Amino acid sequence: MGWAFSSLSPVYMQIVSRLRADILAGRYTADAPFPSVRQLAFEAAVNPNTMQRALTELENEGLLYSRSTAGRFVTADVGVLDAARRKQCQEELAQLTERARALGLKKQDVIDFINEQEDWEL
Hints:
Layout: H1 11-24, H2 37-44, H3 48-60, E1 64-67, E2 71-74, H4 78-102, H5 107-115
Antiparallel strand pairs: 1-2
Helix pairs in contact: 1-3, 2-3
C-alpha cells in the first residue's frame, strides 16, 4: 500500500501510526533487520530526518531497538507487543465511543454491531 499523508496531524506521527500497526500485525519479523531510514524515507517520499524522528518514537515505545552498526530490529518481547496492541485498541475504542455517542448510540448498540460481524470471532 502506498504512503498517503493528511494535513490533520504531523507526518512523522502518521508514519509512527502506520509502522506501529505494521509491527503489531506481524508484517515485520521479530529480531529481523528493520528497513533503513533511507529506504523507508524513499518509499514514503519524505525527508530522512522525518523518518528518523518516527523511528526514534517507535524505539522510545520499545517496539524497535538498535544494535550499534547493525541497524534497527523489531522487538521480540511479547509483553511489549501485547501492551502496545492493548493501548492501540483502547485508543481506537475511545474514538469509536466518542463518535457513537455523537450519533446518539448506546453502548449496547455498539456491542450488538460488533457481535454482528460475521468475519470476526471473539
